[in-house]
Amino acid sequence: MSALQTLEMLNREGMEACNQGRYEDALFKLNQALDIAEKTERHIQHVIIKNNMGLVYQIMGKTGQAEVCFKLALHEAETHMPPESLPLKKVRRNLETLLDKTTSKAA
Q: Residue 106 has what pLDDT?
């Protein structure tokens, strides 16, 4: 199995674990996928995985960690992707949603 196939499998398994409420397992698999993405310099996968990690943390109620993941994904996307790319738009929307919820809870 190629590194890209392994990365995609781990990302998929991580999100399946999240959907089943197994958040720690989800983060473990996503971290494994992230390691591969960083070693192979797969920028789009790096963005997708960091975004997914942000979603898992958000579901867990760990908004600080979610924000960090979304911001790292956004930086990577803005650095390596066209401004209108779908992954960039998704990360931007997820970060804005998180910050809106955080701001409204603080008010």
A: 63
DSSP state of 61: T
Residues sharing a CB contact under 8 Å with residue 46, sequence separation 6 or more, in sequence order: 34, 37, 38, 73, 76
Token readout for 14 is 């991580």
Positions in the chain whose pLDDT score sits under 70:
106-107
Between CA 56 and CA 50 the distance in angstroms is: 10
Residue 106 CA neighbour count, 13 Å, CB half: 7
Nearest to 45 by CA among 67, 75, 14, 73: 73
DSSP code at position 84: T
Distance CA 10, CA 93 (A): 24
Query: Phi, psi (5° rounding) for residue 42?
Result: -90, 90
Question: Which amino acid, residue 13?
Answer: E
DSSP code of residue 45: H
